[in-house]
Write a structure and sequence with these properties.
The chain has 407 residues and is mainly alpha-helical. The chain contains 15 helices and four strands. The structure holds zinc ion.
Length: 407
């Protein structure tokens, strides 16, 4: 019973924590634009930005309320126990029972999230002129996304539960090794297998931009064959760029919307930032810490994997992989919050290093103007609350970055 209430407190505390953060952010957003960023928005645009922020914040709170309610219903009112019982009626095989249970959970979560996704895309994003996705494309994306995740998680879960049945004592180590290998393979193939399901990537076309990028890439020893343009414009007018993969599959991907919004010098500066990530080996560092964290999580889970108390907390008489894992994940939430806090601190450090790389190559000024343009275009919040930045931001704020460039 103590465990039952501990989990309810954890779920409610996490909810309260995110509400506090969003209230803090709401309050901070009423500040005037910082001196260094003056001129990014005129008065009308700033009012639009404020309205967009408010709308997103309200949306976040409502979706949070619905998700928390769903979780509480499933856990506290016996939803998980019912799903477990139903899966057991359909099969006797522990692997199949677990897969059926996770499938029901997945579909439920997906169904609850779907209206939010529709509202976000076709109401909020459309209202502020960002959405470019058509209903048809949205439906295709949703269906593909559903099956891609289902396939990947289904295979991973199936394997892990199966291994648990074979070697319960060393399950955590073997399962971790297999999950790690599959994750690495997925990372390696991400650009070639997953991305093409949703987007078209093309090598950078000949021209002034390509020559400018070519000479910079050559100067810093980065292969131009690894630079691609992606058709992000078919979904949103927001611009982006990212670095992905490792070894022979590393690549920098620039959104076509980025090319529309920025000058050649600014694009080279954004590219320099991405090459900075590569030079500092950020992908490898992130992957190694994720692998270590997973190992710790698998080990901790193995300590409670057959605990009767854990299963009883969810209203089940018999412990099982899927019920114990679900309850374990709920108990793990506070640690997860701390982990994401640390990973955001690290990520901001990496972003700072990538910015510094661009600065060292004399591109700070252009990166600064590129980021200002992109922030203005995407109506981003210029004055987030410091606590929100500290806990949730994977990038330094625009103000911090501009101070870095101009300091
Ligand atoms: Zn970056």
């Amino acid at each position: 019973m103590a465990l039952y209430w501990t989990i309810i407190v954890i779920v409610l505390a996490e909810f309260a924590y995110s509400i506090v953060l969003s209230v803090l952010n709401r309050k901070a957003s009423h500040q005037p634009i910082p001196e260094l960023l003056r001129g990014i928005y005129d008065e009308a645009e700033y009012a639009r930005q404020q309205a967009y922020s408010r709308e997103n914040s309200r949306f976040g709170v409502v979706s949070n309320i619905v998700n928390t309610t769903l979780l509480l219903c499933l856990f506290a009112l016996g939803g998980f126990a019912w799903m477990d019982g139903y899966a057991r009626e359909l099969s006797n095989n522990p692997v199949l029972i677990a897969l059926l249970f996770f499938f029901m959970f997945y579909v439920l979560d997906w169904l609850v999230g779907l209206p939010f996704s529709v509202y976000d895309t076709f109401h909020i994003e459309a209202k502020y002129g960002f959405n470019r996705s058509t209903p048809r494309l949205f439906v295709m994306d949703t269906i593909k996304g559903f099956f891609v995740s289902l396939l990947i998680y289904g295979i991973l879960m199936g394997l892990v539960v199966w291994i648990y049945g074979l070697i319960p004592e060393f399950f955590w180590l073997v399962a971790w090794a297999i999950v790690s290998v599959i994750t690495l393979i997925l990372q390696f193939l991400y650009s070639d297998v997953i991305v093409p399901l949703f987007n078209k990537q093309t090598p950078l076309a000949e021209g002034e931009l390509r020559s400018a990028i070519e000479s910079f890439a050559q100067k810093v020893g980065f292969k131009l064959q690894n630079i691609y343009v992606i058709d992000g414009s078919k979904r949103s007018s927001k611009a982006n760029a990212y670095f992905t993969g490792f070894g022979s599959r590393k690549r920098i991907v620039l959104y076509d919307t980025l090319m529309e919004q920025l000058t050649t010098d600014e694009i080279v500066a954004v590219l320099a930032h991405e090459i900075g990530h590569y030079k500092h080996r950020h992908i490898l560092k992130d992957m190694s810490s994720a692998l270590i964290l997973n190992l710790i999580m698998f080990y901790l889970f193995s300590l409670v994997i057959d605990s009767k108390d854990i299963a009883a907390a969810a209203g089940c008489d018999v412990p099982s992989f899927h019920i114990n894992m679900t309850v374990f994940m709920l108990l793990f939430t506070p640690i997860q919050i701390i982990i994401s806090l640390i990973s955001n601190i690290l990520s901001r450090k990496h972003e700072w290093e990538a910015d510094e790389f661009a600065c060292q190559h004399g591109l700070g000024k252009y990166l600064s103007s590129a980021l200002k343009k992109m922030s203005a275009q995407s109506l981003s919040n210029l004055t987030p609350h410091p606590v929100v930045v500290y806990t949730q931001y994977s990038h330094p704020t625009l103000l911090q970055r501009v101070e870095h460039f101009e300091g």
